[in-house]
Amino acid sequence: MTLGPDNRLKILTIAIAIVFIILAARLFHIQIINDKYKINADNNALKYETKYPVRGRIIDRNCEVIVENKLIYDIVVTPIEVQPFDTSAFCAIFDVDEETIKSKFAEYRLYRKKIGYGSRTLIKQVSGEQYNRFVEQAYKYPGIEAILRSSRTYPYNAGGNLIGYVSEVDQAYMEKHPEYRSGDDAGRTGMEQAYESRLRGEKGYSIYLRDAHNRIQERYENGEYDKEPIAGEDVHTTIDIVLQEYGERLMKNKVGSLVAIEPSTGEILTMISSPGIDITQLSEINKYYNDLISDPLRPMFNRAVQSAQPPGSVFKLVNGLIGLQEGTLSTSTQYPCHKGYIVGKFRLGCHNHPSPINFYQSIMMSCNAYYCYVLRNILDNPKYGSVAEGMDAWREYVMSFGFGQKLGSDVPYEMAGSIPSSKMYDRWYGKKRWHSLTVVSLSIGQGEIQCTPLHMANFVSTIANRGYYYIPHIEKSTERHQIDEKYFVKQYTKVDTAYFSEVVKGMSMAVSGGPGSTASVAGIPGVEVCGKTGTAQNPHGDDHSVFVCFAPKDNPKIAVAAYIENGGFGATWAAPIASLLVEKYLHGEICEQRKYLEDRVMQGNLLYKVKVNKKK
Fold this sequence. Notes:
Layout: H1 5-33, H2 35-41, E1 46-51, E2 58-59, E3 65-77, H3 87-94, H4 98-110, H5 112-115, E4 120-126, H6 128-137, E5 144-153, H7 160-163, E6 166-168, H8 171-176, E7 185-187, H9 190-194, H10 196-199, E8 204-210, E9 216-219, E10 235-236, H11 241-250, E11 256-262, E12 267-274, H12 279-282, H13 285-294, H14 303-306, H15 316-326, E13 340-343, E14 346-349, H16 359-365, H17 368-379, H18 387-399, H19 422-429, H20 453-464, E15 468-469, E16 491-492, H21 500-512, E17 530-536, E18 544-551, E19 558-564, H22 574-587, H23 595-603
Helix pairs in contact: 1-2, 11-22, 15-17, 16-21
């Protein structure tokens, strides 16, 4: 059927009417019913005053508060509302440089379209006295006001690197995190960064009406659309802050790291990087930042997880366990040592001690030659078709202890370290052009092995547990927040658990086995300590002092790794430091007969031994 002109006109008229009704209804809903659109459309007539939330606290394993908050005032400016004022008088109130204020206002003018009716933080954390002076004269400075917010404060002078710092976000940060605005703070390192999403809370705001002259009049809709801030969530950590503080005193004037773990849970008790950030610097990071990043000793560098270096003789325990598992070694196996391992013109030196010795004595006396035999027998095992196959089998064992990979902890910036493979040596020397003697330095934790102090602490926890570890972590579960299930899973090595008791026996002898014990200095009255010294070779100066231990021998409560750069023999500095930390944790104090050792450690200064590349 063909429609006539009149019918087509009627249909068109009806269609237009329907569209008009729909648009009118939508417009009515937007403008009258849904006031949210009115608020957004009328932004130029409204002023939003930000209410900052209280940041969550950081609490230690014993419910001691590590990081809390204090109320402070920031001076905030709404550039579009500012009128000419006496800059010198304003700067005198806050003791700030005039050029600083002028440069900020120049920046506001440059970005005036982007800022619009928004506000910017002009001066952060003014004192109470400065705030009071400003309030008395605030009428002289329209568009500038004081905003109440909170700032971090630290009850204990410890844990600077571990805690991390909070600072105002910059443009680069906001580009990566668009939910932040100028004037907002964020955790930039350490736990403050790792748990930022939970610690920061949620901002609120109050909305005020402006008049035609941009003057604030009254609360918009009697505060109906105001939003209260939501406080940040507290984070509970595994750290023992009292032990952390004591450990930092032991590490004062030394370069290195000290890590303690509870073997039965994988919870990190202390993590110390020295030299580190002092708490007084942390609370005023903007003031000290340039000095910290230019310091050649790198105090902002967390050596516990970022410094991968050779473990030294501590690694002999790994090779011993692999040898026992592979059947190329038994506890009764004896090897000779003639002040070193000698093959033709090749010689790897060792200190003077009785010879030959068995497996337990090799740990007790830390014999280099013994472990050269052990490693070569592993790599040259006839069941493997070549030394390359033996090498890759050895590597799989080593990796099962957590070496050569990130452990998966919740500590920021954890490094993987490295464990060499046959492919690497094939590239270096060519296929079938290297043999077990070529890589024999791996037997004593040298050569191409790189691991962090956290790896070593995790390793000694594995021995303490007789064959497994829990992934190390620094956060505890609470009713409100459960940590990842992976932290509760036992990570077994490829070595049968039965062999670990043999290593434990040797480690016990290293501390309390009498003449020849390399770690007797680590002995604690009334506690059976199991330990192993290490001396890591350093081509740039004095060797590094290394020590790992756990205690008590049965049902261990604490496992420790100490790595003291340029500290010399393991027994010289690392062993005393680690054992004092153990005694402090188990007994709460140092016994009278070991006070001399505590004094020597705390007064010791090794900074003069450290060679650094100073910036010109």
